[in-house]
Design brief:
The protein is of the alpha/beta class. The protein contains nine helices and five strands. Helices cover 46% and strands 11% of the residues. Helix 2 packs parallel to helix 3, helix 6 crosses helix 7 and helix 6 packs parallel to helix 8. The longest helix is centred in the C-terminal third of the chain and has 18 residues, at 190-207.
Amino acid sequence: MKQLVLDIAPAPAPTLDNFVPGRNAELLHLLKDLAAGRSRERFVYIWGEPGCGRSHLLTAFVAAAAASGHGVVCTEGAEGGPGPELAGLDAVALDGVQRLDDAGQIALFNLCNRMREGRGALLVSGPAAPAQLALRPDLVSRLAWGLVYQVHALSDGEKADAMAGRARQRGFALAPEVAGYLLRHWRRDLPSLLGMVDALDRYSLETKRPVTLPLLRRMLAAP
């Protein structure tokens, strides 16, 4: 991989504001309200294919809730699962529920019961709808207690729009053929695509050439 490409700046930290919603606008609005304490929802389960933005949303939700002064934690599905001490928090986010072992599933089941009887909101993510998960039936029923949302991956058109918007923020116009070339020949996740827009802008300034498809090809072929 060429050094210039390796020099792409790291993606900014996930926030609810820098999440490109696409068809997920309703879910994004809910999570903003939940993080700010403006929602009465107690249980939210989100699911979707890899790369759809589930982990971004969980991480961003935790950051937004913490910024609002709420006690909140983000944990991953792992051996043992969430402990009982989490029941006293304002919000808990658990990423990758499908990875919980038997003990972890029992722990999450108990946490759901304690939070329902007490306080706080629980946001859980997984790769499929609750009924399609290979988990304990009683836990599956708990995951479906509240709202269930599929996180829809962005279409190519939405990714192209996001890249064009990033380019406008940086003060240049991104031609459709440049966005299309990146979608065909570069990593397809949005952070990587936006990082390439940033790198292309820097390369354009360094070479004093306008951003075009030939310039992109030249950048990718540069020694």
